[in-house]
Amino acid sequence: MKALIVDDDFYSRNMIHEILRQVARCDIAVDGEEAIEAFRRGLADHEPYDLICLDLLMPGLDGQQALREIRSLEKEHGISQPDEAKIVVTTMLADEKETHDAFFLGGATSYLVKPIDEDKLMDEIKSLGLV
């Protein structure tokens, strides 16, 4: 499995990386712009991401904008829903509007509230059929 971890917080990135590196080849991005660039490279190299852990609140291009752009790139490349990257939104927010927008406007697959728990993350990626 190939995973992209997108978070502006060093601690959160490292925690998710420590969990996922046991089951995935991981790349890291610190903001939405880096995430989109990494996603584009993966598509161009014919090695798309299976999983993206995406923080919603980041400086510059935030997670909501990155999510919409990633889904747009998938459509441009003819990638249909069953083959789309599984995008797990990771957020400290209990804000229902942000979560609603990520799912219904952005196309997120699921979400986890920070701090990320190893068991919950592993259970989530198992439920998505990734391990």
From TrEMBL:
<feature type="domain" description="Response regulatory">
    <location>
        <begin position="2"/>
        <end position="129"/>
    </location>
</feature>
<keyword id="KW-0597">Phosphoprotein</keyword>
<dbReference type="Pfam" id="PF00072">
    <property type="entry name" value="Response_reg"/>
</dbReference>
<protein>
    <submittedName>
        <fullName>Two-component system response regulator</fullName>
    </submittedName>
</protein>
<dbReference type="InterPro" id="IPR001789">
    <property type="entry name" value="Sig_transdc_resp-reg_receiver"/>
</dbReference>
<feature type="modified residue" description="4-aspartylphosphate">
    <location>
        <position position="55"/>
    </location>
</feature>
<dbReference type="InterPro" id="IPR052048">
    <property type="entry name" value="ST_Response_Regulator"/>
</dbReference>
<dbReference type="InterPro" id="IPR011006">
    <property type="entry name" value="CheY-like_superfamily"/>
</dbReference>
